[in-house]
Design a protein that fits this description.
By secondary structure, the chain is α/β, with parallel strands linked by helices. The chain is built from ten helices and 13 strands. α9 runs antiparallel to α10. About 35% of the residues are buried.
Length: about 325
């Protein structure tokens, strides 16, 4: 990866630039809110910021172990993030050491920062990006899930915290091929106002085996016809893909979906499994999708198989495709 002090990543009013010694005063002022360091394993007292974060970040940058960025919004310093564990041979890198002043939490900035870093890493030939997160840091975990990252592994008693307790860490990953495939399920400029698919905990109607596969696509098992109006009105779904056959009630579902103002697509997968014609119907729906989209069948098994097969046709490695399919319900 090409990483030097001239590197600037930018999206509209948000910029990431290489950490410099001259950034010390602005970052020290920013670091005084103790909420910022709640999940930091090295320290929780802002008084330790200079020694245990700032000087350490500059030293690791000089040693080539880490490349820290300063995050600015409207030319105001608001936090930092880093590339680290850069493995040129394996073409992998981790993104982490990310923190923002609490005034900028909940504004979508964390996701934009991570997407800028992801895109640059993949442009530079990286094949897989990792995020190692405290299991208790639900805010950061939610941020990487919104990017489409998948859980890779869990490390128990992984890092000793500043208070002496041991932290469990969860590792998420996203590969270049998976990122490329997921880009087909993200809204283009014409769809920029589309809402994201809800997480299971946000649903107002019970749906079996619901899974948020990407920020804009969800999968599920059986859905009662009475639930479609809520899915449209409360959660903003625009498209329903029904992976069932005519004998399973697709006619009733079509009427209910269309009555709710959503687009209905039928991919009739039977006991023969996923066929070329099924993939073609689904691929056509994905070429210019109306999002968010919910794909379902009676149990989730056929949906998972369709999703896995589709991802693999987009270059996702077989192991990753199967894992995504199993998460969606494939048995």
């Amino acid at each position: 990866m090409q990483l030097d002090d001239k590197l600037i990543l930018q999206k509209r009013e948000l910029t990431l630039s290489a950490l410099q010694a001259a950034d010390r005063a602005a970052l020290v002022r920013l670091a005084q809110d103790p909420r910022t360091w709640q999940h930091n394993p090295s320290f929780t007292d802002p008084a330790d910021f200079l020694e245990k974060w700032f000087f350490k970040a500059l030293a690791q940058k000089q040693q080539g172990k880490r490349f820290p960025f300063v995050i600015r919004y409207q030319n105001i310093v608001i936090g930092s993030s880093s590339f680290y564990d850069i493995n040129a041979a394996q073409k992998t890198v981790s993104i982490g050491y990310t923190w923002l002043h609490p005034d900028y939490w909940g504004k979508g900035i964390n996701g934009i920062v991570k997407k800028l870093l992801l895109d640059y890493a993949f442009e530079q030939g990286i094949k897989e990006v990792h995020f190692v997160i405290d299991m208790e840091n639900l805010r950061s975990r939610a941020a990487v899930l919104k990017l489409g990252a998948k859980e890779k592994e869990i490390f128990r008693d992984h890092i000793k915290r500043a208070d002496g307790t041991m932290r469990d860490s969860i590792v998420y990953m996203i590969s270049r091929n998976l990122n490329k495939a997921l880009s087909h399920s993200s809204p283009n400029k014409r769809h920029a106002t589309f809402p994201q698919a809800p997480f299971a905990s946000q649903l107002v109607v019970p749906i079996k085996h619901y899974n948020r596969a990407t920020p804009y696509i969800a999968t599920a098992g059986e859905i009662l016809p009475t639930a479609f109006a809520e899915l449209a009105n409360r959660h903003g779904f625009k498209t329903i893909v029904d992976v069932r056959t005519a004998g399973e009630g697709t006619g009733v579902a079509r009427e209910a979906v269309q009555a709710a103002g959503m687009k209905y697509i039928n991919v009739p997968v039977d006991n023969r499994g996923i066929q070329a014609e099924h993939l073609e119907i689904f691929a056509q729906a994905m070429r210019d999708p109306e999002l968010p989209m919910l794909i379902y069948c009676a149990s989730g098994n056929r949906v998972g198989a369709l999703w896995a097969t589709y991802l693999m046709t987009k270059g996702v490695p077989q192991e990753e495709g199967i894992q995504a399919g199993q998460t969606a319900g494939m048995r």
